[in-house]
Amino acid sequence: MKHRAPLQIIVALVRRDLGCALRNPTVLACMLVPLGLCWFLAAVTADGPATVSFMRPFAYAVAAIFPTVEVGGVLTLFVMSEEGPRGTYRLMKRCGVRLRHIVAAKMTVGVLVSALITAACFGLMGVPLVHLAPIGAAAALGSAPTLLLFCACGLRCADQIWANFWAGPISFVALAPLLGAMAPAFEPMATLIASASPTTLLAGACTAIASGGLGALNAGALGITPLAMVISSVIWLAVGTLALHCRPGKAPQKRPRRNDPTNRTPEEGPQQSQDRP
Collapsing DSSP states into helix, strand and coil, what is residue 224? Predict the structure, then answer.
């Protein structure tokens, strides 16, 4: 692999990651979670006009955000947190693979799978088929900031405990646009919080397209203007890129003292005193 072009390396890694994901029962179960939730929300919002007017924006926001957080988070954050301690990255480095190739492959798989699951979720909610392709494209663009944050945090994880630690705050911030779907009950704070989320473009664009097609993007959705969608996504992409390039180094190891009895093995027993009587 040392003599291959970077694009060939990334394609090979994408095929590897995608194949591993489709064979992993945990990943397949995570794919069913947003699909099942959207199927339930579709049944709830199909009762009548009063229910639809209140629940439909919230249901669209759930369909837009949950595939990225649930499925994309597993394919990026948790997978990267497992491969690092197992020595996979060191083995790949010996074969000519660089960190940028690994991140690009993880991002490609995460964006592709998240976009497909997002389009399927909106399809379960009865969105016309003509709108599913634009929704998938909007999901691919809008999921990038969140998945980049997941990748950056996955590189810092030494085990699954740290992966769960990072998954909590990122998921909390990513779900913030759901408050915008409940407006005007939570105005104006809901709009401010929704506009500052890394999933602002993801939730706003997908909800707008599902509600009125591509023409609805000019008016925005969930209380989020198109300008706020673009600015928030650019800022969070910059934050994720900075986090990737500012990975912490290895902590310096403390040198053990020669006469420290705690450093001796049980077979050696306690060290004899060197003091003369």
Answer: strand
